Amino acid sequence: MSNIDFTLYNAPQSTCSQRVRFAMHIKELAFTEILLDLFSGDQLKPEYLSINPNGVVPALVHNTKTILDSAVILEYLEDICPKINPMRSADPVIAAEMRTMIRFIDEVPTPAIRIPSYNLAFLPHFQTMSKEEFEALADSKPLRREFLLKMGQTGFSEEDMNEALSRLQRAVLRMDEWIEQNGGSWLQGNYISYADIAVMPVIVRMQDINLSYYWDNLPKVAKWLEKIQEHAAFSKTFYHGSLLTEKYPHLAKNK
Ligand SMILES: N[C@@H](CCC(=O)N[C@@H](CS)C(=O)NCC(=O)O)C(=O)O
């Protein structure tokens, strides 16, 4: 492609950002990376809110146009760059199947993985704040106010954790079914699609925080993870500092 200019606002450990980095590497699209420090509140500064009023990463600026939301960005990349390593079938029924998978992924495991991630890794960042500071921070978040208030400064409850783990388990089981139904080894069959990319950061995070026992008896899911980790785009996407255990080494102690 000629005359292209991509700027990706993102964060190393953000699972939504990892989706987009992975897809852009597969599509061989060079991009300028602007890293936001989510704990310093870069995503809530007026200059970033003018790019993404939701105050979350990622945001992709393509020439002068801004594209928001990781799942939307993935399909946008396919729309502008359909020839290099296609990841969406030209068959509308199969493309619809892919979108249905992504909707499930964004309903079930994507919100669920935030609960153990916050409780295990991010909570201490909020515990040094006064109650007033914490509430003011929550109030400043356009998308995550209620999420943060529910967590509070003591963390999500055991009930919330169990509910999240049950959602993650259901998602892993659903992946196993999709791989089986479509003949593997990817979710839609013999090629990597945006559905694989959408769920990948969740599964990588689960492995990182010692939840890989959920696929101990699901060899197809284990193989899927091995394959995606062997993909050339993987190490470019998960550069050092992208895994939680690289920033919070204590999380690795039970590995
Ligand atoms: N649906 C959005 C969600 C984006 C999102 O939740 N991003 C997180 C990181 S994965 C974020 O920026 N969080 C910052 C915050 O909570 O303040 C997408 O997929 O792009």
How does this structure look, described?
This protein is α+β, with helices and mostly antiparallel strands. It folds into 2 domains: 6-80, Glutaredoxin (3-Layer(aba) Sandwich), CATH 3.40.30.10; 92-252, Glutathione S-transferase Yfyf (Class Pi), Chain A, domain 2, CATH 1.20.1050.10. Helix content is 55%, strand content 7%. It contains 12 helices and 4 strands; from the N terminus they run E-H-E-H-E-E-H-H-H-H-H-H-H-H-H-H. The protein has helices at 15-26, 46-49, 70-80, 92-107, 109-127, 131-139, 145-151, 158-181, 194-208, 219-230, 232-237, 244-247, and strands spanning 6-10, 32-35, 59-62, 65-68. Strands 2-1-3-4 form a 4-stranded mixed β-sheet, with helices on one face. The mean pLDDT is 96. Bound molecules: glutathione. Glutathione (GSH) is lined by residues 14-16, 38, 43, 55-58, 69-71, 141, 144.
Give keywords:
255 residues; alpha+beta; 12 helices; Glutaredoxin; 4-stranded mixed β-sheet; 7% strand
- The overall strand count is 4
Query: Overall 3D geometry?
Result: globular
**Biggest sheet, in brief?**
4 strands, mixed
Number of domains: 2
In DSSP terms (H or I, runs of 4 or more residues), the helix count works out at: 12
The low-confidence parts are none
Strand order of the largest sheet: 2-1-3-4
Proportion of residues in β-strands: 5-15%
Mean pLDDT comes to 96
Helix content: 40-55%
